[in-house]
Amino acid sequence: MTSRSRPFLENRPSLCSYCLKPVGGLLFRWGDRWYGACSADHLEKIKEDLEINDQFKRGERGVSLKVAQINRAGIEKAVASTKEKYLELAKKNKSFVIHQWERNHRLQLFSQAIKEYLIYCTELANKGLLVEKRENDRSN
Ligand SMILES: [Zn+2]
Known about the structure:
The chain has helices at 6-11, 40-53, 72-81, 83-93, 103-127, and strands at 26-30, 33-37. By secondary structure, it is mainly alpha-helical. The chain folds into two domains: 6-55, no CATH class; 72-129. It has a two-stranded antiparallel ribbon. Helix 3 packs across helix 5 (103-127). Zinc ion binds at residues 16, 18-19, 21, 37-39, 42. The site of zinc ion has 8 residues, from loops.
């Protein structure tokens, strides 16, 4: 199996298996499994985890990755910014009831919403959350 075959087109790792950063192009193979890596350095660290913890090549890394927290503002932004797409697809499907749409159209809508959400969260991660101080707090 090569990294150009079908599973990689539809189910390619999108996060680094070491630090959970979005993956560029790096994939690492271990037995029947493939891991995404954000850098050659992290690819090496994933490999080290596996060599130490997984002699049977079952994908046991000996570490637990954290699960991302849901960001409510990001969801609201994603919903708002997919409104146009929703209306366009509703028109095509002659229904505002999503479960009556063609499957491909439902996937398009959710893909766009998730992409918008990830863009929001990536920007937040880059810039940090700005919380303006109130007048009463200015003494600090
Ligand atoms: Zn990484």
